[in-house]
């Protein structure tokens, strides 16, 4: 079994034990410890960044996990992130154990390489599944306060990358109807993934991405942003079904935010495609970030 499939199996086992991976619960803590152990064996140090969530007056503490390469200038950092928390009452395997696992694979591959030119920083965000993505928002604010946000050259978000009725989606940096101003430089990230898929004859589509997830605080702070997405509750178009197979007019993930978002309802081949892309991004940019300039 591939490492990334193994990670998903572990996330499912933790959900079987604890019920879910919701922010502030034992299931979240178990998932966090799993990520930390994996990072440690990959030779990457990680830290927890604690913050308080105020969810309609109900306050609790939770945390992000941040890990980065030792080498590379800390004034030029490329960030990749995935939320680790899930909705209450379900295993959250596509949303977002898939992204957390793909990111873990990229970090593991990068951790094994001896020379890194640029600093790559990975984030497993806490508390995304709320009206606001609390963990990433806290992180961006913290960097703004320290005057360190300038050091982040790019952010790539990985949220839901194993949908059963999938598209291979790249965040559309040219979306005319986006509700936010898309930072300059975002197109280069989109182009990077487009080139990667094109070179492998892998069809892809530009996908809407101005929904609530961890890219938003970065976009709002004008950091060049991109990401990968294989679909949630929205319906697959006829054209997408022609290109990617699957069922037109059906949701791209019929189990989105339900207790059935489990290991039986993910597409592992899709996860492998997206894991390859995210690993390629991390390892390429670690050596050479000219495609982002
Ligand atoms: N943010 C949603 C969640 O975590 C998932 C989602 C829906 C999404 N559409 C998106 C994520 C587009 C990124 C891009 O539940
Ligand atoms: Zn999500």
Structure description:
With about 290 residues, the chain is α/β, with parallel strands linked by helices. It has a single domain (about 1-290), classed as Aminopeptidase (3-Layer(aba) Sandwich). Helices cover about 40% and strands about 20% of the residues. It has helices spanning about 5-20, 25-40, 95-110, 135-145, 185-200, 215-220, 240-245, 270-285; strands at about 45-55, 60-70, 75-85, 120-125, 150-160, 170, 205, 225-230. It has an 8-stranded mixed beta sheet with strand order 1-2-4-3-5-8-6-7, with helices on both faces. The mean pLDDT is about 95. The chain binds tryptophan and zinc ion. The site of zinc ion (ZN) has 7 residues, from α3.
Brief descriptors of the model:
38% helix, binds tryptophan, eight-stranded mixed beta sheet, 293 residues, 8 helices, alpha/beta, 8 strands, binds zinc ion, Aminopeptidase
- Count of separate DSSP helical elements: 8
The N- to C-terminal Cα distance equals 37 Å
Q: Assembly type of the shown chains?
A: single chain
Helix content: 25-40%
Structural class: alpha/beta
- How many distinct domains? 1
| Element string (H = helix, E = strand) | HHEEEHEHEEHEHEHH
The CATH superfamily is known as Zn peptidases
Main sheet: strand order: 1-2-4-3-5-8-6-7
CATH topology: Aminopeptidase
Rg of Cα set: 17 Å
Overall shape: globular
Strand proportion: 15-25%
How would you sum up the major sheet?
Answer: 8 strands, mixed
The CATH architecture designation is 3-Layer(aba) Sandwich
Number of strands: 8
């Amino acid at each position: 079994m591939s490492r990334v499939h193994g990670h998903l199996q572990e996330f499912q086992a933790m959900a079987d034990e604890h019920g879910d991976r919701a922010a502030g619960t034992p299931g979240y803590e178990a998932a966090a410890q799993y990520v930390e152990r994996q990072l440690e064996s990959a030779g990457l140090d990680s830290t927890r960044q604690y913050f308080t969530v105020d969810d309609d007056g109900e306050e609790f503490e939770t945390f992000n996990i941040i890990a980065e390469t030792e080498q590379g200038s800390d004034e030029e950092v490329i960030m990749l992130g995935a939320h680790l928390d899930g909705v209450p009452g379900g295993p959250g395997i596509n949303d977002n154990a898939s992204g957390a696992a793909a990111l873990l694979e990229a970090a593991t591959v990068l951790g094994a390489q001896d020379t890194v030119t640029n600093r790559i920083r990975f984030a497993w965000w806490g508390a995304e599944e709320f009206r606001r993505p609390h963990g990433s928002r806290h992180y961006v604010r913290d960097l703004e306060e320290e005057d360190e946000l300038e050091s982040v050259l790019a952010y790539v978000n990985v949220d839901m990358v194993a949908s059963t009725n999938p598209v291979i989606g790249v965040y559309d940096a040219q979306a005319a109807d986006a509700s936010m101003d898309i930072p300059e430089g975002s197109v280069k990230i989109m182009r990077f993934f487009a080139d990667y898929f094109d070179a492998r004859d892998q069809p892809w589509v530009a996908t809407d991405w101005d929904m609530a997830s961890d890219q938003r605080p970065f976009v709002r702070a004008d950091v060049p942003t991109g990401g990968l997405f294989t679909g949630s509750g929205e319906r697959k178009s006829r054209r997408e079904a022609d290109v990617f197979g699957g069922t037109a007019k059906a949701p791209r993930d019929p189990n989105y935010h339900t207790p059935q978002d489990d290991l039986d309802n993910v597409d592992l081949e899709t996860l492998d495609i997206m894991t390859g892309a995210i690993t390629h991004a991390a390892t390429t940019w670690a050596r050479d970030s000219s495609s982002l300039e």
